[in-house]
C-alpha cells in the first residue's frame, strides 16, 4: 500500500488538467484583493503564532459548537417562558396569586399542583437538552493532529482548536474547521475533498495549495513556519473566499480552491496540512445553519384554543355567579346577611359581588385541566421510548435504531402531508454500480427491473420467460444478436393472448441472464449477461466496437489504481463514483487499468486473438476534463503502434451533436436503450472515439498548447474553442448505465407514503440529470409523466439582468400552469423540475405565489443544484403557502437548515457525520424506517393524543359544571360542594393513570394493518379535534344526570337511619364518587385495545378513591376537615349511597353507549370495520374478504412503485390489444 501511495504522490495533477476547474482563478482576482482591510474583509489570522492570537481584536471564537436550546444561565428564564406560554399554566399562576387575597379553597391546593406540573415539564426539557449536549460533546471531543511546537504534532480535541493553529488531517477524516490548505501528500499540493455534507454532491472536489507553501510537507518543516492571513470576515457563502497570505515577505492571493471547509472529508489523499482560518460558529457550514427553533405540534396549538374556550366559559359562569350573588343579596339583603363576604358593618353588594367573582374564578378553575399538559408530556416521553425500542426499526447493519430526539412532535408524525427529502445519503447509498450497457446498438445486462416483474405478476405472465436471446458462439449473425423478445412478435403474442402456458421453450438456448446465485458479488459491479461475461465478448461479430468500448471505459478517466484485497484485483479512487464503477467494470470485462504516471496509462487487457492477458502502454497526450458546462471528458492517447485516438465520454445529447456522418450507425437503437435505462433510473454516459492523423494532431496540439499557457480571462474561451476543434467527427460506440444505488426499501417506502396521501419533493445539490435519474429510480418520476422544467437560459444567465431573468421564469411558470389547467387528460400526472438558480428567482416575493401554486399541483417536485439556504427557504415557503404539516429528511450538514425549518425534522444517522441528526427531531438509520415511523407510530400517537385531549376536557367539564350547578341550586351562596383535597386529587391522582394508559397503549388497529393501503376516500384514518354537537349533548346529559339524580334522590328523604338527612359533606362525597366512577368507566368505553395495565389503572383508580376516603377520613379533623370518618361512619353504611352510585353511572353512560352502538351498526368508520374483522378473525377465516377490503380501499396514486406498475400494465395491455387486433 505504501508503494502505491508513493506512486500516487508523484503525479502532478496540475499538469493533467486544462480547464479552470483546477487551475488557480485569475478572473477578478485583483479587484477582490483590493477589498482586504475594508469593512467585511478585516480578519487577520496569525499562523502558528499562539502568543499573538490572545490579544484583541485577534482573539476569535473557539472551535466548539452547540445545538442545545439552553445553558446554565438561560435554562431557568427560557424554560419558565416556554411553560407559561401555555395558557393553562398562565391561568393557574394567576389563580395561585389570587388565592392570597380571597380563596374558596386552601391556597396549597392551587400552588402544589402548579409547581408539580411546571417542574415535571422543565425536568423533561432539561433531560432532552442534556442528550443534545452529549451529542455536541461527541463532536467537540473528536481529535485531530495539531502542531504543538518544535515540529511536533499531537492529538488535540476539536473544541480546543484556535484560529491560526496548524493541523494535519489524514485520509477519510473530517476537517475540524475551515482551513487554508498548505500542502498535501501529493507532490504539487493537490487533494481530493468530499463535500456531500455541504452540497450533497457525490463527486470529489480537487483542492490545491499555493506553490509558496508546497515545501511544508513534513512535520519538522513547521518548526519555523510563520505567516499572516488577511481575509474576509465570517460569512455563509460556501463557494467564495477572498484573502491574502503574507509568507516569507511576499503576498499571495487566495481563492476558494485553497480553502477546506468544516465537515468536508479528505478522500484519496494520505494527508494534508492546513491552518485554521474560521473556527466554531464562524465556520461557513455553521453560518449556513440556524438555531434550533421551538416547535409545537398542531394539537398543542389547538389545545391552546380549547383552553381559551374553556377560559371564556370560566369567565362567563364566574360573571353569572357574581351578578347572581349581587342580585339575590340586593333583594334578600336582610335575610341573607351571612352570605356577604365583606365587613358586615359596611354592606356593599357590589364589593361583595366582586369578591364572589374572584372566588368563582378560582373555584371553577377546575374546568381548565392543569394536569393536561404534564400528562401529555409524560405520555409523549413514554411514546418516544416505545418508538426508540421498536425492534422493527432497528438496522442490523449499522446497529442503530430510530431515536426520538424530542417527544413534543410524536402526534405530528400522523399529520404529515408534504415530505421534503435530500437525495445523497438519504435516498441513495453513495455507491455506484455498473448495471447495463449498449454497444453497437445491442443492449446488454438482462436483469429485469422490479416494475416489469410486478407488472408481469399482475398480468399472470412470467415476463422473464418472454425475454431471451439466441446465442451461437462465433457464428451468430448480428441480426440474430440484436433480436430480443418484444410485443411485436406475433406468434408469442398470440400465445399470451390465448393464455397458453409453457413458454419456457423460449429459454431453451443459452440464457443471456446469468445465474446470480453462482456469481461472485463484486462491489460496484452488478452486471449479468453471459454474452459479455467470462470473456465471451471475444466471440462477438462486432468485436472491434466492443473492444473500443472497453478501452474508452478503461482509459477515459482520472482514476488511480490502488492495491485490492485480492492479488489479481485492484481497487480504484477517482473524482466521481461513476468513474470508479467504470474502472471496476472494465476490470471485470478483462481490461484492467493497473498503472498511471504523468504521461503513461497501462492496461492489462485480454487479447482476443490469443485469449491471453497482455500489458499495453498508452501514451497520455492530453486530458480534457469533465465539468458541468462541457458535460463531457476526453483523453488523447497514442497506442504502441503510434496510432492517435481521441476517447470521449459524456452526456448523450452532447456526444450525439459531435458525431460524424459515418458515426451514427447505432444512434437510433442507442437512443431507444437510453430511454429504457432512464426509466429504470440509471445514469448514462455515451462513449465515442475518433482516429486522428499525425498531421492533424500536431496542428491542433500547437493551438491547444498556446491556449493552455495563456494567462488572463480569455484563457477558458481559447481552451473551449481548441477542444471543440478536436472533439468532433466522433464515432458512436454505445452507452454505459450505472445505478446510484438506492438504500434498501426506498421505492417501497415512497410507494407506501404516496398511498398514505403524502406529496414528496426531492431537494438535492446534484445536477439536473442526476436528480431526474434518481427520480425515476425511486418512482417519483415515470415515463408517462408530463415534466415541466423551470430553468434559466444561458443567455439570460450570462446577461445577469434580474428583470429579464424574472420575466423568463415567470413566463415558464405561467405557461406550465396553463398547460396543466387546459390538459384534457387529467389521468396523466405532472412533475416539476427546477434548477437552483431559477429557484432562487422563483422564490422572490412577486412570483413566489405562482411558483408554489404550480408546484403544489404537481404529483412530484424535484429541485436540483439547491444550496443549504435555499433548502430552508423552500421549506418555509411550502409551509406558509400550503398550511400543511411538512417533514424534511436529510443526512448532511447541508440539510440542517431544512430540517430545522420544517414542522418535523428527520436526520439520517448515516455516513455523513452527525450534524443533521443533532439538528433533527427524529433520527433514522435508514430512509425505509420512515414508513413505519409515520404510518404506524404517527397514526397511533395522533389518535392517542386526540382521545386524551377530548377525554381530559370531558372529565374536567364534568367536575367543574357540577360545582356551577350546585352554585345555581344554592342561589349563588359561594359554598364549595367538594372538599379542597378532593379537588386537588381529581386530576393528580384519581383520573391521571387511566388517561396516561390510553395515551401510551391505545391501538385502533394493529401495526400490520396500518401498513396496508386502507384509506377512506383518500383520507387518513384520524380523529380531528373539531366541534361535535352530538358529543356536546352527551357530555351535558351526563353532567345533568350526575347532579340532578343526586340532588333529587338525596334531598327529599332521609339519608340514614333515625331520619338523618344528607348535608353538604354527604352530597359532596356521594356526587364525587359518581364522577369518579363515571369518568373512569367512560374511558373504558372509548378504549379499543385493552392490556392488563389499562385494566389495572382504570379499576385501580376507582379502588384508590375508596382507599383515599379511608386514609383521609382517619386523619384528625384539623387535617381532614369535612372528610373526617365520612366513609366509615356516614355514607359507607347507607345502602342508598351504593344504589345512587350504580344508578347514576348507568344512566350517565347510557347515551354514549347507544351512540357507539348506532355508529358502528349503521355508519361505521374504516377502523371500526377492521376492528370487527379482527375480532371475528375474518382476516384468517375469510382471507378473500380481507383482500377485497384492501382492494376496495386502495387509493390510486400518481407517484410511487404502484403507480409505475399500473402504467406498465396499461402499456402492456395496450400493446396486447393492438397486436390482438392485428392478429
UniProtKB/TrEMBL annotation:
Gene Ontology annotations of biological process type: phospholipid translocation
Domain (P-type ATPase C-terminal) ranges: 917-1164
Keyword Translocase assigned: yes
Catalytic activity from the UniProt record: ATP + H2O + phospholipidSide 1 = ADP + phosphate + phospholipidSide 2
Species whose genome carries this gene: Hevea brasiliensis (Para rubber tree)
Classification via PROSITE patterns: ATPASE_E1_E2
Residue spans crossing the bilayer: 306-329, 357-376, 948-968, 980-1001, 1033-1055, 1067-1090, 1096-1115, 1136-1158
Pfam families attached to this UniProt entry: Cation_ATPase (PF13246), PhoLip_ATPase_C (PF16212), PhoLip_ATPase_N (PF16209)
Cellular component, GO, one term: plasma membrane
Domain of life of the native organism: Eukaryota
Keyword Metal-binding: yes
Family per record: Belongs to the cation transport ATPase (P-type) (TC 3.A.3) family. Type IV subfamily.
Name by which UniProt lists this protein: Phospholipid-transporting ATPase
Membrane topology: Multi-pass membrane protein
The enzyme's E.C. designation: 7.6.2.1
Cofactor(s) this protein requires: Mg(2+)
Annotated Mg(2+) binding sites: 422, 424, 891, 895
Amino acid at each position: 500500500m505504501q508503494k502505491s501511495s508513493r506512486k500516487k504522490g508523484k503525479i502532478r495533477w496540475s499538469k493533467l488538467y486544462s480547464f479552470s476547474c483546477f487551475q488557480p482563478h485569475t478572473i477578478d482576482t485583483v479587484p477582490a484583493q483590493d477589498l482586504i482591510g475594508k469593512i467585511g474583509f478585516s480578519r487577520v489570522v496569525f499562523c502558528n503564532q499562539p502568543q499573538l492570537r490572545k490579544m484583541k481584536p485577534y482573539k476569535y471564537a473557539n472551535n466548539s459548537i452547540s445545538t442545545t436550546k439552553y445553558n446554565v444561565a438561560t435554562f431557568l428564564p427560557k424554560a419558565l417562558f416556554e411553560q407559561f406560554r401555555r395558557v393553562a399554566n398562565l391561568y393557574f399562576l394567576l389563580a395561585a396569586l389570587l388565592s392570597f387575597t380571597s380563596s374558596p379553597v386552601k391556597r396549597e391546593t392551587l400552588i402544589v399542583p402548579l409547581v408539580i406540573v411546571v417542574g415535571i415539564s422543565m425536568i423533561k426539557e432539561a433531560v432532552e437538552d442534556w442528550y443534545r449536549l452529549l451529542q455536541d460533546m461527541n463532536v467537540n471531543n473528536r481529535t485531530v493532529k495539531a502542531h504543538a511546537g518544535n515540529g511536533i504534532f499531537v492529538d488535540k480535541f476539536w473544541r480546543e482548536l484556535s484560529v491560526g493553529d496548524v493541523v494535519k488531517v489524514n485520509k477519510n477524516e473530517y476537517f475540524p474547521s475551515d482551513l487554508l490548505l498548505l500542502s498535501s501528500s501529493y507532490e504539487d499540493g493537490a487533494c481530493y475533498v468530499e463535500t456531500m455534507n455541504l452540497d450533497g454532491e457525490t463527486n470529489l472536489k480537487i483542492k490545491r495549495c499555493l506553490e509558496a507553501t508546497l515545501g511544508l510537507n513534513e512535520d519538522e518543516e513547521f518548526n519555523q513556519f510563520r505567516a499572516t492571513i488577511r481575509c474576509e470576515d465570517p460569512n455563509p457563502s460556501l463557494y467564495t473566499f477572498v484573502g491574502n497570505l503574507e509568507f516569507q515577505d511576499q503576498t499571495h492571493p487566495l481563492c476558494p480552491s485553497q480553502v477546506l471547509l468544516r465537515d468536508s472529508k479528505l478522500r484519496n489523499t494520505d494527508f494534508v496540512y492546513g491552518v485554521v482560518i474560521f473556527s466554531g460558529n464562524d465556520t461557513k457550514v455553521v453560518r449556513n445553519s440556524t438555531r434550533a427553533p421551538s416547535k409545537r405540534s398542531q394539537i398543542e396549538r389547538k389545545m391552546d384554543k380549547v383552553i381559551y374556550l374553556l377560559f371564556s366559559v370560566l369567565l362567563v359562569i364566574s360573571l353569572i355567579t357574581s351578578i347572581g350573588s349581587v342580585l339575590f343579596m340586593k333583594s334578600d339583603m336582610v335575610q341573607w346577611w351571612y352570605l356577604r363576604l365583606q365587613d358586615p358593618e359596611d354592606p356593599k353588594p357590589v364589593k361583595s359581588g366582586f369578591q364572589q367573582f374572584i372566588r368563582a374564578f378560582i373555584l371553577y378553575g377546575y374546568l381548565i385541566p392543569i394536569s393536561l399538559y404534564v400528562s401529555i408530556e409524560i405520555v409523549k416521553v413514554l411514546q418516544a421510548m416505545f418508538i426508540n425500542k421498536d425492534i422493527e426499526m432497528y438496522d442490523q447493519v449499522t446497529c442503530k435504531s430510530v431515536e426520538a430526539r424530542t417527544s413534543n412532535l410524536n402526534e405530528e408524525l400522523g399529520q404529515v402531508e408534504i415530505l421534503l427529502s435530500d437525495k445523497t445519503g438519504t435516498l441513495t447509498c453513495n455507491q455506484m454500480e455498473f448495471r447495463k450497457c449498449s454497444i453497437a446498438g445491442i443492449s446488454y445486462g438482462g436483469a429485469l427491473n422490479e416494475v416489469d416483474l410486478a407488472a408481469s405478476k399482475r398480468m399472470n405472465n412470467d415476463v422473464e420467460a418472454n425475454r431471451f436471446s439466441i446465442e451461437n458462439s462465433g457464428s451468430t449473425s448480428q441480426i440474430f444478436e440484436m433480436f430480443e423478445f418484444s410485443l411485436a412478435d406475433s406468434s408469442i403474442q398470440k400465445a399470451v393472448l390465448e393464455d397458453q402456458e409453457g413458454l419456457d421453450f423460449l429459454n431453451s438456448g443459452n440464457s443471456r441472464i446469468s445465474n446470480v446465485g453462482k456469481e461472485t458479488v463484486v462491489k460496484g459491479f452488478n452486471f449479468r449477461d453471459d454474452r459479455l461475461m467470462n470473456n465471451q465478448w471475444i466471440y462477438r461479430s462486432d468485436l472491434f466496437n466492443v473492444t473500443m468500448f472497453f478501452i474508452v471505459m478503461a482509459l477515459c478517466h482520472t482514476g488511480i489504481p490502488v492495491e485490492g484485497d485480492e492479488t489479481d484485483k485492484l481497487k480504484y479512487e477517482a473524482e466521481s463514483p461513476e468513474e470508479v464503477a467504470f474502472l471496476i467494470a472494465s476490470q471485470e470485462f478483462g481490461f484492467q487499468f493497473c498503472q498511471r504516471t504523468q504521461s503513461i496509462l497501462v492496461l492489462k487487457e485480454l487479447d482476443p486473438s490469443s485469449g491471453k492477458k497482455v500489458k499495453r502502454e498508452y501514451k497520455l497526450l492530453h486530458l480534457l476534463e469533465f465539468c458541468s458546462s462541457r458535460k463531457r471528458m476526453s483523453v488523447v492517447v497514442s497506442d504502441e503502434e503510434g496510432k492517435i485516438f481521441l476517447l470521449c465520454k459524456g452526456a448523450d445529447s452532447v456526444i450525439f451533436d459531435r458525431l460524424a456522418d459515418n458515426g451514427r450507425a447505432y444512434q437510433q437503437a442507442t437512443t431507444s436503450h437510453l430511454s429504457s435505462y432512464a426509466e429504470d433510473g440509471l445514469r448514462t454516459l455515451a462513449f465515442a472515439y475518433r482516429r486522428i492523423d499525425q498531421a492533424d494532431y500536431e496542428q491542433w496540439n500547437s493551438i491547444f498548447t498556446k491556449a493552455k499557457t495563456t494567462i488572463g480571462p480569455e484563457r477558458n474561451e481559447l481552451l473551449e474553442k481548441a477542444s471543440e476543434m478536436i472533439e468532433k467527427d466522433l464515432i458512436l460506440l454505445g452507452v454505459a448505465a450505472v445505478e446510484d444505488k438506492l438504500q434498501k426499501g426506498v421505492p417501497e417506502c415512497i410507494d407506501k407514503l404516496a398511498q398514505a396521501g403524502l406529496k414528496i419533493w426531492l431537494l438535492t445539490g446534484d445536477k439536473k440529470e442526476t436528480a431526474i435519474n434518481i427520480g425515476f429510480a425511486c418512482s417519483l418520476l415515470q415515463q408517462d409523466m408530463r415534466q415541466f422544467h423551470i430553468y434559466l437560459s444561458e443567455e439570460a444567465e450570462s446577461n445577469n439582468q434580474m428583470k429579464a431573468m424574472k420575466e423568463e421564469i415567470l413566463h415558464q411558470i405561467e405557461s406550465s400552469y396553463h398547460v396543466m389547467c387546459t390538459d384534457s387528460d387529467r389521468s396523466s400526472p405532472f412533475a416539476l423540475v427546477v434548477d437552483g438558480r431559477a429557484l432562487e428567482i422563483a422564490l422572490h416575493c412577486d412570483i413566489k405565489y405562482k411558483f408554489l401554486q404550480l408546484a403544489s399541483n404537481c404529483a412530484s417536485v424535484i429541485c436540483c443544484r439547491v444550496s443549504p439556504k435555499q433548502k430552508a427557504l423552500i421549506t418555509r415557503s411550502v409551509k406558509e403557502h400550503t398550511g400543511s404539516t411538512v417533514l424534511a429528511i436529510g443526512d448532511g450538514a447541508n440539510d440542517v437548515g431544512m430540517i430545522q425549518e420544517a414542522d418535523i425534522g428527520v436526520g439520517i444517522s448515516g455516513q455523513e457525520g452527525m450534524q443533521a441528526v443533532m439538528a433533527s427531531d427524529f433520527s433514522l438509520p435508514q430512509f425505509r424506517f420512515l414508513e413505519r415511523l409515520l404510518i404506524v407510530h404517527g397514526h397511533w400517537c395522533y389518535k392517542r393524543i386526540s382521545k386524551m385531549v377530548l377525554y381530559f376536557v370531558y372529565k374536567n367539564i364534568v367536575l367543574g359544571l357540577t360545582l356551577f350547578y350546585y352554585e345555581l341550586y344554592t342561589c349563588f351562596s359561594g359554598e364549595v360542594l367538594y372538599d379542597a383535597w378532593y379537588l386537588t386529587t381529581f386530576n393528580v391522582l384519581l383520573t391521571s393513570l387511566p388517561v396516561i394508559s390510553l395515551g401510551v397503549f391505545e391501538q385502533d388497529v394493529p401495526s400490520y394493518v396500518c401498513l396496508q393501503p386502507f384509506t377512506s376516500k383518500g383520507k387518513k384514518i384520524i380523529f380531528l379535534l373539531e366541534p361535535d354537537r352530538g358529543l356536546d349533548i352527551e357530555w351535558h346529559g351526563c353532567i345533568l344526570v350526575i347532579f340532578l339524580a343526586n340532588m333529587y334522590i338525596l334531598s327529599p328523604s332521609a339519608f340514614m337511619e333515625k331520619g338523618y338527612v344528607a348535608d353538604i359533606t354527604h352530597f359532596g362525597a356521594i356526587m364525587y364518587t359518581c364522577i369518579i366512577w363515571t369518568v373512569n368507566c367512560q374511558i373504558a368505553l372509548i378504549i379499543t385495545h385493552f392490556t392488563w395495565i389499562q385494566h389495572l389503572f382504570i379499576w385501580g383508580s376507582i379502588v384508590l378513591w375508596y382507599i383515599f376516603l379511608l386514609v383521609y377520613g382517619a386523619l384528625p379533623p384539623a387535617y381532614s376537615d369535612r372528610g373526617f370518618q365520612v366513609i366509615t361512619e356516614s355514607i359507607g353504611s347507607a345502602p342508598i349511597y351504593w344504589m345512587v352510585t350504580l344508578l347514576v353511572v348507568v344512566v350517565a353512560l347510557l347515551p354514549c353507549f347507544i351512540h357507539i352502538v348506532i355508529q358502528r351498526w349503521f355508519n361505521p368508520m374504516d377502523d371500526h370495520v377492521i376492528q370487527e374483522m379482527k375480532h371475528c378473525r375474518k382476516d384468517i377465516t375469510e382471507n378473500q374478504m380481507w383482500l377485497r377490503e384492501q382492494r376496495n380501499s386502495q387509493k390510486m396514486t400518481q407517484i410511487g412503485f404502484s403507480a409505475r406498475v399500473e402504467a406498465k400494465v396499461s402499456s402492456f395491455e395496450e400493446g396486447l390489444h393492438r397486436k390482438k387486433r392485428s392478429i
